[in-house]
Write a structure and sequence with these properties.
Low-confidence stretches: none
Distance between the termini: 76 Å
Number of strands: 29
Number of helices: 30
Strand content: 15-25%
Shape: globular
Largest sheet: 10 strands, mixed
Length: 849
């Protein structure tokens, strides 16, 4: 039955504690220990029941309890203290403003999911958690950044395992008016609404705002009455739910609708950052906005978009790089190419990658790469993998020159460090560790922490984890455990045993089953009375990933078959609460992906911050973090002839490392009960990983490598009614129309004599440029060792300068230093160059001798 009238009811706060609402509506509280304790003091039991949602806590407390709190001077004094800290944080000068004159600049960050806190279920896993941490550190460093995303009515699914271990999905509705978010309204008090054209008509979305410190996150919601087409109300129902129709609808609302939402709010971003291809349609809409604002054609407006946009790719897995069939693109973008002044073929070419199963596809990753000038992977290794993956876009360039760099992911330190370790760091490190989290000199102070104290606090976290697991399992009577096992739950796990954690998405390439390859050996390890070991597992398989669900079921079945239920537990419905407890309480963090399919990973960084040692394949971030004394590596990063061979060898490595290194080290105790060598590893782990793999360092990297140059580009391109964009487009037209006539006519070494290491070699080249000027090109000598296939390897290059010109022929000369012995060689290449392009490869053109 529909209501005749509807209205919103909220709690009325006494004047003495009115500041609670301001704190509750800013997620700054979730990474400030005093603010969390403030809400905890109001009602500890209720705080847990409402899943740490401060708005729901306040609304459920009741007027009597709120009035009582207002009369408690110790509570009101603590509230005023926390509120002063909050105000100081919001008003403090920032790193970003001190290093650059930003003026009224805005950076818009687009992501399909955001993991802020468990009370805001708008995330599924690593990508969302990273996005949330990105916004938090942007606030800490004062970046003028806003986030853009979707607000999901049911969020991501809740996981339930039946008795056989099969995953079932449950979706629960979120009450947006009980979340710390605010509906954006116009001057008349009506909700601000945007629309996007879809095949059956317009889809409408309203905009909500979530505040994280100084950063605003704007979220679009289609479940509104104005959507007369019922299915369009459902677009933002589920994160990664629905079918391919749902997916393209969500990505159009996120990208096109997101840009229109910013425009409606009055925010004109000078830089946009597309976090994964899901949001790449924003680049098209941004270009359309520039066309309209500056009266430009698409190709001219595109120069502004490209020069001031950043694209981050997050996965080397082909399935993770979104593609749509051309007929679906035709259906959803019937009129949009015309709005851009493009033909259907020109429009589809923006995302054209090639054929899949003899079918043309439109790639969101290709669109993201083609409409941005700044591209990156999320670890050093992933940058290399991405350059290999996408070389076909830059066909005439060597792999190492593909313009895809890397910014290795990090974690928001304050969010993920345990209270116990926070107190240790406060005592033994410089007090500035909380702010200057990426300063390695500060983290050297970890060596000052007495081993007994460090290990004692780690033991406390393990005890808390074990007690939590027992309570968590006991509250799930319909789980994979039977009633008899639930009655004996207090015998599950051992508070003193070496505890291995494995928690991540159950995609098959992550190989959760690797540890369970040899059950006889694993059983012997787990049941050793003198040196017991236990395993805690958590994670979800995508609802459509049957193979991933089968992995979960097979592990649970093996645990049952070998009677290991007390030694191996699976925690259903993995979320940020479970993640925090596991990374803080486990002793070992296991990671077993097929190299190099793990783009980065961040859970191991969170574990390391809390003294949990990583046991991992050398993939993603661990490939650059491991130094031999801060954790353990499975294998040496080698490649194998087959997947079966790789699984056999690497599972054997896991058992060998456990039996011969990890377990003996963990149980080798001093007279005071401290495993000194283990604690030394813990200290090395924290001090080498905490500063380097924080989002503070990550955001500084994004700012200096991408945001600040992109901001400068935007201001240059948009000045004087976009005159520079017109200039660049005209120059590019000239280059493209003349490039077929560019040719290296002759190349030679000037002079004679023996060549040896370190000798300067003088090179001469004659180049034909047609109607182009020597100022339009960059002529380089490209040199290095000759490999067994006759190719130049480990290449370097050096610029040649024009000496003279005669008609269409231009003579260039230069020198380079012979870099090595053996067979060496060089060639000559010509690239287009202009002060307004970010790098020469941006035009995909290169003429080789």
């Amino acid at each position: 039955m529909k209501p005749l009238h509807s209205f919103i009811v909220t709690a009325s706060l006494p004047p003495e504690i009115e500041q609670l609402k301001e704190l509750a509506y800013n997620y700054w509280w979730c990474w400030n220990s005093d603010a969390k304790e403030l809400f905890n003091r109001m009602d500890r039991t209720l705080w847990e029941e409402v899943h740490h949602n401060p708005i729901m806590l306040i609304n459920k407390l009741g007027p009597e309890r709120l009035e009582e709190l207002s009369r408690q001077t110790d509570f009101t004094s603590f509230l005023h203290y926390v509120h002063e800290k909050f105000q100081s944080y919001m008003e403090s000068s920032s790193w970003f403003s001190e290093m650059t004159d930003t003026g009224s600049a805005k950076i818009a960050y687009f992501s399909p999911e955001y993991g802020i806190n468990e009370s805001f279920p708008n995330y599924s896993g690593g990508l969302g958690i990273l996005s949330g941490d990105h916004l938090k550190s942007s606030s800490d460093l004062g970046l003028p950044l806003v986030g853009v995303g979707l607000l999901y009515q049911q969020g991501y699914f809740r996981q339930r395992l039946n008795h056989s271990g099969w995953q079932n999905e449950i979706y629960k509705y979120n009450d947006f008016f009980s979340l710390p978010i605010v509906l954006m309204r116009d001057g008349t008090g009506s909700p601000i609404v945007i629309d996007v054209d879809l095949p059956l008509g317009k889809a409408f979305a309203q905009i909500w705002k979530l505040q994280l410190g100084t950063v605003s996150l704007f979220l679009l919601d289609t479940n509104i009455d104005i959507n007369g087409i019922e299915m369009y109300r459902d677009i933002t129902d589920q994160l990664y739910g629905g079918d391919r129709e749902t997916r393209i609808q969500q990505e159009m609302i996120l990208g096109i609708g997101g840009m229109r939402a910013l425009e409606k709010i009055g925010i004109e971003p000078e830089v946009i950052h597309i976090n994964e291809g899901h949001a790449a349609f924003a680049l098209l809409e941004r270009t359309r906005i520039f066309m309209q604002k500056y009266s430009l054609d698409f190709r001219t407006a595109k120069q502004i978009t490209r020069g001031s946009s950043v694209f981050t790719t997050h996965t080397p897995v082909p399935a993770g790089n979104e593609t749509f069939r051309q007929d679906r693109m035709d259906n959803y973008f019937r009129n949009y190419p015309g709005m851009l002044g493009l033909s259907r073929e020109e429009f589809l070419e923006l995302g054209h990658e090639g054929k899949y199963n003899n079918e043309e596809k439109f790639s969101m990753t290709v669109l993201g790469l083609r409409l941005t000038s700044y591209h990156n992977g999320v670890s050093k290794l992933h940058g290399e993998v991405s350059r290999n993956m996408w070389q076909r876009i830059w066909k005439c360039f060597p792999t190492n020159e593909i313009p895809i760099g890397h910014v290795t992911n990090g974690i928001h330190t304050q969010t993920w460090v345990s209270r116990e370790f926070t107190q240790l760091f406060d005592r033994y490190l410089s007090p500035t560790w909380r702010i200057d989290t990426d300063n390695p000199d500060i983290w050297e102070g970890v060596d000052n922490i007495p081993s007994e104290e460090l290990y004692r606090e780690k033991q406390r976290r393990r005890v808390r984890l074990v007690l939590y697991v027992r309570e968590y399992l006991s509250k799930r009577p319909k789980s994979y455990l039977n009633s008899e096992q639930l009655n004996q739950i207090n015998e599950f796990l051992n508070t003193d045993a070496l505890t291995i954690g494995f928690a991540r998405r159950f995609a098959t390439y992550k190989r959760a089953q690797l540890l369970f390859s040899d059950m006889e050996k694993l059983t012997a390890i787990l049941k050793n009375i003198d040196s017991p070991v236990q395993i805690i597992i958590a994670g979800k398989a995508h609802p459509h990933d049957i193979a991933g669900k089968e992995v979960i079921q097979s592990i649970i079945q093996k645990v049952k078959d070998y009677g290991l239920e007390r030694h191996v537990v699976f925690l259903e419905d993995y979320d940020m609460v479970i993640a925090r407890l596991m990374v803080k309480g486990c002793d070992i963090w296991l990671n077993t992906p097929v190299r190099p399919m793990e783009a980065s990973g961040t859970s191991g960084m969170k574990a390391a911050l809390n003294g949990t040692l990583n046991l991992s394949i050398l993939d993603g971030w661990w490939d650059e973090a491991f130094n031999g004394l801060n954790g353990f590596a499975i294998g040496n990063g080698q490649e194998y002839g087959s997947q079966e061979e790789q699984n056999n060898i690497e599972s054997g490595d896991i058992y060998d490392i456990l039996e011969n290194t990890i377990i003996p080290m963990f149980y080798d105790r001093s007279r005071t009960g401290v495993p000194q060598k283990w604690v030394n590893y813990m200290k090395n782990c924290i001090k080498t990983i905490a500063p380097e793999f924080s989002t503070t360092r990550m955001i500084r990297d994004y700012a200096t490598k991408y945001y600040i140059p992109a901001l400068a580009n935007f201001r240059e391109f948009s000045a004087e009614n976009a005159d520079k964009a017109r200039e660049l487009r005209t120059w590019k037209d000239k280059i493209k129309s003349n490039w077929e006539r560019v040719e290296v006519i002759d190349a030679s070494i000037i002079g004679n004599g023996e060549v040896f290491v370190g000798k300067e070699i003088k090179v001469s080249a004659v180049v034909a440029l047609g109607d182009l000027s020597p100022d339009d090109v960059l002529v380089q000598v490209y040199y290095g060792s000759i490999d067994s296939h006759g190719n130049i390897s480990d290449a370097e290059y050096s610029r040649l300068e024009r000496v003279n010109s005669q008609n269409d022929y231009h003579h260039f000369e230069g020198i380079y230093v012979c870099p090595g012995t053996g067979m060496q060689g060089f060639t000559i290449r010509v690239l287009p160059t202009h002060p307004l392009i970010v790098e020469p490869a941006s035009m995909y053109l290169c003429a080789w001798a």
